[in-house]
Specification:
The complex is a heterodimer of chains A (662) and B (532).
Chain A: H1 2-26, H2 30-55, E1 60-61, E2 74-75, H3 77-103, H4 110-129, H5 133-151, H6 157-184, H7 196-202, H8 205-223, H9 232-238, H10 241-263, H11 271-294, H12 298-325, H13 330-365, H14 376-379, H15 381-393, H16 401-419, H17 424-456, H18 474-492, H19 494-509, H20 523-544, E3 550-553, H21 570-573, H22 575-580, H23 582-585, E4 587-597, E5 600-612, H24 615-635, H25 643-661
Antiparallel strand pairs in A: 1-2, 4-5
Chain B: H1 3-32, H2 42-52, E1 55-58, H3 63-82, E2 87-88, H4 98-118, H5 122-153, H6 158-163, H7 171-187, H8 206-209, H9 215-240, E3 246-247, H10 253-280, H11 289-313, H12 319-336, H13 340-360, H14 370-398, H15 411-431, H16 441-460, H17 464-485, H18 491-519, H19 524-531
Parallel strand pairs in B: 2-3
Helix pairs in contact in B: 1-2, 1-3, 1-9, 1-10, 2-9, 3-4, 3-9, 4-5, 5-7, 5-11, 7-9, 7-11, 9-10, 12-13, 12-15, 12-16, 13-14, 13-17, 14-18, 15-16, 16-17, 17-18
The chains are: A mainly alpha (662), B mainly alpha (532).
Chain lengths: 662, 532
């Protein structure tokens, strides 16, 4: 009975998403379609809840379409977590879109955006229910292509450029995944995903390494790991904000899911593969966070912060791979996988909230540059508090859920140090991770506080800021509050959620059960203590401030009235960090000065220009691009345009084929 | 009595004594600077006055400006209640997980920064930018420090760390406490990171952020920073002597009273130390802060390494090893410096570390030789780290041209060369076996490294003053060699060596100064012509 309800609700969920995509064009307004989108996502969430209540943690096959390429949608323990997460976040983003698309009716075509958005979510959810490599890649492509169109929905030149960069990178990644599946399935496209363990056990060492790298590149480039990340800070910010939220908050999680599900399913992976993942993870974390502290475009800064978080997640996964391959400390390794999933869930929630907030801000100031924002907190107190919660929830602070991901990483490292005291190499590795993760979390605080402080506080740096009341925008603010609240809720329930996750990860990836040690931190106690303190302070506030005398006056200004240009700008705010990490980042600073009047050399006009050089595109991508162009130039030699030559080529091709065939 | 009462006693104690802490440090500082100083209890009166004053709120600010004082004060009080300051095992001790503590600290900083930005003035922005940079760069150091202790004590809460009664004589603990002190100075906006006494924009960090606050809000913020200072002072004292904490499970009225009294004593002692530090150090330029953090980081990292090594070897690392590492580090730093003063400073540091090596050897030698080691240490401190640098800088000071000692190599390359030399020496020494020297291996290495670096310094520096310093470094190396091989020397020979050192330094320095007067240069290239 329950199974039938479950089947039908998932069926109707996908049907609803399809209908919503069609309805966007058929009906008069996009709003109906958005409402349908929200309701079908409720169905998705409902089926997720049903799964957790009654079927967890078994694998459920919903229905068999054997006639259609063996497609049999299924849901397992791992995918159900992400499935429910995406339905949940999609509901919130749907609510946000109701108002957001209305505000941007002129810039974007709301019908197209809404329709593509529904298909985009359909693609992501499809990946989780895929049972063979064909359906996996099919939905993967649906997700990639719809998001490609969404990136350039404002049809500006930069967007199109960013979208094509994204298109190329995502298809390189997709082809790598396809290659991996083909090797795994021995040439068959209909490789059953449940067979990963058996199939990989039969492979030779070299082809195992090869598919590992293919999957690492495929999923890593989607997740934005450095150095495959160049597309991410270009494409994510160009999309409309609700789509950026979906891309950064959810699409990256699809990559994480794919990596966990497939790569950790492979057996006999060499331990050094884990080291490579750790290296890429740490590199992404540090590069991501450094650029996030320096970026002046608010959405790009958030995109870099996504790279940083993906880096942390992949570092945890790499550690898990390393220790599982060494067949030691496997209980800590499974705990690390659980922590990484927990962090991924939190990241999905807070990054969505941050991108949604960036949409609200950009709607007010009509620019993405942090240096032209400011003073919004006074204008929109409710929004600013929601944004503050979102910002804080993205940092490893108690009582937010994000804290426990970081906590888990550091506790696991200390536990691993105890276990591996006799292998100096491992100790050095662990120390490096410990130090870098500490630095990353510190710098993340700087990056986030900078974004909030510069964009919301102080005087407005922009005359075009819209000063209308925030009452009409409640549909934009409530979703952010909900997401922030969810992260706090996760923080409260961290202890039980993570314990359960660790237990399930062990049974999911290994047949025998491993000893399980409960967490030695009481998340409920921490959370309630923080809130109790908050309430006590709130209570005594009125007591002390019963007779408060105050008056309002200008900010102290040294006798000369201050204006917005005298405030610290976003660029100035991160100047110390830029100075301390100069060797890692590289920058181009131009100061030009010329006399205003040529006869008087003392009165001069100064021009200051600062640009961040992207070390990655300079050192890695430019040479490749140049090489490709060179090759293309050379290839043009044979394209002379004479028909005789082409016929000659045909003949050659025929002869060569015959030689190979015979 | 229950743990809850313990927590309450602790909170009330910290809240009551916090203004006195600030008063104490101001009082000690005034006395050290030769002033009479204000009353110890002035800060109580200041706070009460501020509470009654009218507030002036900038009209630029938003709601965040009004929330900040509460959150900052709240975070300080949370620290006071969760950390084991007087009692271990109090009701909130479960919360003192070191990452939670780091998180609470960061929350305080974040809101202070937001308050600074909200006024829209350049001052607030500058203070905020600096404060959050400091907080961000401190985070890895804090995590490293507490991970070390957590690794050793097998407990992730600070309460558990202190309950395990860790042994002070272990070297790593000393290093972690040194790192903790460096972190606390930065966290509490004291010298050399920030100057709490001025309102000068070049030096302000903390003061710049709270510039726009007045009245009650200002009182809150000042009170919060006083509480934070108290908490850190007691925490450092507790790490140095965990035995003074009162355990909640076994307590009675008298032990509580003693605990409280000890708390007051701890605060007085730490504040005296703080005042000493603040009277002798100068504020660092903000853009040199990365050096400060590197030092703190290196110390914390070293502590971690030592902790790991001693559990790897299962024989604890001894003090003399640590101090020989310090000797080598300060000589390497000396190697790349150009200014005479800096070079002499690092020379003094390395000599100080050699004296400490001698002291560290004390538990390992025979009874009758202890006195020799003591004499060696005292004379090394008196002569090599005080007299010799003074003599040289005194003579060098007369001539402006002598303050810079140019080298053939740039600083970066010099460090590189020094590190290559270190590695080369290591591998050479590993293949050479000296009979009977297995146990004091690190000392032998230090000695050889010092000699090699001294010679290299004489080669790459072009000024004759640096030749003198090179000679002194070689002499230091020989001294360490003596420590490593013989352990001690007869008294007369020791006196002889020290006398010769001072005399050499004096004669050579005077001679060089005379040469400089004669031919107007101290560059060795130019002096070649003199011979002809």
């Amino acid at each position: 009975m329950l199974e039938q309800i479950f089947n039908y609700s998932i069926g109707f969920y996908f049907l609803g998403l399809c209908l919503s995509a069609i309805a966007a064009f058929v009906s008069k307004s996009y709003r109906n379609s958005t409402k349908l989108f929200i309701f079908s996502n409720f169905l998705g969430l409902l089926s997720g809840v049903i799964y957790f209540i009654s079927f967890f943690p078994q694998k459920i096959t919903l229905i068999h379409f054997d006639w259609f390429l063996g497609f049999a949608p299924q849901l397992n323990m791992l995918s159900s977590i992400f499935f429910s997460l995406i339905s949940l976040v999609a509901i919130v983003v749907g609510v946000y879109s109701l108002r957001y698309l209305e505000l941007y009716e002129k810039t974007y075509n709301p019908k197209t955006v809404q329709s593509l958005m529904a298909l985009f979510v359909l693609g992501m959810q499809g990946v989780f229910i895929a049972n063979n490599s064909f359906s996996f890649l099919f939905f993967w492509e649906v997700m990639s292509i719809t998001s490609f169109f969404l990136v350039f929905s404002d049809k500006t030149k930069e967007s199109v450029k960013a979208a094509f960069l994204y298109f190329i990178m995502t298809h390189l990644g997709a082809s790598a995944i396809l290659g991996g599946f083909l090797i795994l399935g021995n040439g068959s496209l209909l490789f059953d995903l449940d067979n990963i363990q058996n199939a990989s056990a039969d492979l030779t060492y070299s082809s195992l390494c090869l598919i590992f790298f293919l999957f690492l590149f495929g999923f890593g480039s989607k997740a934005g790991l450095v150095p495959f990340h160049v597309w991410l800070p270009e494409a994510h910010p160009q999309a409309p904000s609700n789509i950026s939220a979906l891309m950064s908050g959810l699409m990256l999680k699809v990559a994480v899911y794919g990596f966990i599900f497939i790569t950790l399913g492979l057996v006999n992976i060499p331990a050094w593969a884990g080291l490579i993942v750790i290296f890429l993870g740490l590199l992404s974390a540090i590069v991501g966070v450094l650029y996030a502290t320096m970026e002046r475009d608010i959405k790009r800064a958030f995109a870099y912060s996504s790279i940083e978080n993906m880096g942390i997640i992949f570092t945890m996964l790499g550690l898990a791979i390393y220790f599982l391959a060494n067949d030691s400390n496997s209980s800590i390794a499974y705990a690390l996988i659980a922590f990484s999933i927990f962090h991924a869930i939190n990241h999905a929630l807070f990054k969505t909230a941050l991108f949604l907030s960036s949409g609200v801000i950009i709607n007010r100031v009509h620019t993405k540059s942090l240096d032209a924002m400011g003073g919004i907190a006074k204008l929109m107190p409710w929004f600013s508090s929601a944004f503050l919660i979102a910002i804080l929830s993205s940092l490893p602070l108690p009582p937010f859920g994000t804290f426990y991901g970081e906590w888990g990483l550091i506790q696991s490292i200390i536990a691993l140090m105890h276990q591996n005291i006799f292998s100096p190499g491992v100790i050095i590795l662990l120390l490096t991770i410990l130090v870098i993760s500490g630095l990353v979390s510190g710098l993340a605080v700087l990056a986030m506080v900078r974004i909030f402080g510069i964009s919301m506080l102080g005087l407005s740096r922009n005359e075009k800021t819209e000063k209308r009341s925030e009452k009409s925008d409640y549909l934009l603010i409530v979703p952010i509050l909900i997401l922030g609240g969810l992260v706090i809720l996760l923080g409260f329930s961290a202890e039980s959620v993570i314990s359960q996750l660790i237990l399930q990860m062990q049974s999911f990836f290994s047949k025998e059960s491993v000893a399980f040690s409960p967490l030695n931190i009481s998340s409920i106690f921490i959370g309630s203590a923080v809130f109790a303190f908050g309430f006590i302070i709130f209570g005594i506030k009125d007591l002390i401030f019963k007779n408060k005398k105050e008056r309002s006056y200008r900010t102290w200004d040294c006798g000369q009235a201050i204006d917005a240009t005298m405030q610290y700008s976003a660029t100035a705010f991160s100047a110390p960090i830029r100075f301390f990490f100069l060797t890692f980042i590289g920058r181009k600073k131009i100061i030009q000065s010329e006399p205003v009047v040529s006869t008087n050399p003392w009165i001069r006009k100064y021009c200051f220009d600062l640009s961040m050089r992207s070390v990655w595109s300079d050192a890695l991508y430019r040479p490749v691009a140049r090489g490709l162009f060179l090759l293309a130039e050379k290839a043009r030699l044979i394209q002379s345009g004479r028909i005789q030559y082409y016929i000659l080529f045909l003949l050659f091709a025929l002869i060569i084929t015959l030689i190979f065939a015979l | 009595m229950s743990p809850i009462i313990a927590t309450l006693i602790q909170i009330v104690f910290v809240l009551l004594i916090a203004p006195l802490t600030t008063g104490l440090v101001r009082f000690f500082k005034a006395r050290l600077q030769g002033r009479k100083g204000a009353s110890l209890f002035l800060f109580y009166i200041t706070l009460l006055t501020l509470l009654r004053k009218e507030m002036v709120i900038s009209n630029v600010t938003s709601w965040i400006f009004r929330v900040v004082p509460f959150v900052v004060l709240g975070s300080s009080i949370v620290l006071a209640s969760i950390l084991p300051l007087i009692f271990t095992g109090a009701s909130m001790s479960q919360l003192s997980d070191f990452l939670v503590v780091a998180g609470v600290l960061i929350i305080g900083s974040i809101f202070l920064v937001l308050g600074g930005l909200d006024t829209g003035s350049a001052f607030g922005g500058m203070g905020s930018s600096r404060e959050i940079t400091i907080a961000a760069l401190l985070e890895p150091i804090v995590i490293l420090i507490f991970s070390t202790i957590s690794f050793v004590t097998n407990s992730s809460t600070i309460n558990g760390m202190l309950e395990s009664q860790i042994n002070f004589s272990e070297p790593y603990l000393l290093l972690t406490v040194v790192a903790l002190i460096l972190v606390s100075l930065a966290e509490n906006a004291r010298y050399p990171v920030d100057n709490p006494a001025t309102h000068l924009e070049l030096t302000m960090v903390h003061e710049a952020m709270i510039l726009e606050y007045s009245g009650k809000y200002l009182a809150f913020l000042e009170y919060a920073s006083a509480i934070k200072l108290t908490v850190f002072a007691m925490l450092i004292a507790n790490f140095l002597s965990p035995i003074t904490l009162v355990s909640v499970s076994s307590w009675d009225f008298s032990s509580v009273l003693i605990g409280l009294l000890l708390g007051v004593v701890k605060i007085i002692v730490v504040m005296l130390g703080l005042a000493l530090i603040e009277s002798t150090l100068v504020k660092m330029r903000f853009y040199r802060m990365s050096e400060y953090f590197s030092i703190a980081f290196v110390v914390a990292f070293l502590a971690m390494l030592v902790a790991l090594l001693s559990s790897y070897d299962s024989t604890p690392i001894k003090y003399y090893t640590i101090f020989s590492i310090f000797t080598v580090i300060s000589v390497v730093l000396l190697f790349g410096r150009v200014r005479l003063k800096a070079i002499l400073r690092y020379y003094a540091f390395s000599s100080l570390a050699i004296a400490a090596i001698a002291l560290g050897l004390i538990p390992m030698v025979k009874e009758e030789e202890i006195i020799h080691l003591w004499i060696f240490a005292i004379f090394t401190i008196a002569i090599k780290s005080l007299a010799v640098p003074y003599v040289i800088s005194h003579i060098g000071h007369a001539k402006k041209s002598l303050t810079n000692l140019p080298s053939f190599l740039r600083p970066g390359k010099s460090y590189f060369l020094a590190i290559i030399l270190l590695i080369l020496t290591y591998f050479t020494l590993r293949n050479v076996s000296i009979v009977g020297l297995v146990e004091w291996n690190s000392l032998l290495y230090t000695a050889v490294v010092l000699v090699v670096l001294g010679i290299a310094m004489m080669i790459i520096k072009r000024n004759i003053f640096s030749q003198i310093v090179g000679l002194l470094v070689i002499e230091n190396g020989i001294a360490v060699f003596v420590l490593a091989t013989v352990g001690s020397l007869p008294l007369m020979i020791e006196f002889g060596i020290f006398g010769v050192t001072v005399a050499t330094a004096y004669i050579l320095a005077t001679l060089s100064a005379q040469i400089n007067d004669l031919c107007g240069s101290t560059d060795t290239d130019d002096l070649c012509e003199l011979a002809e």
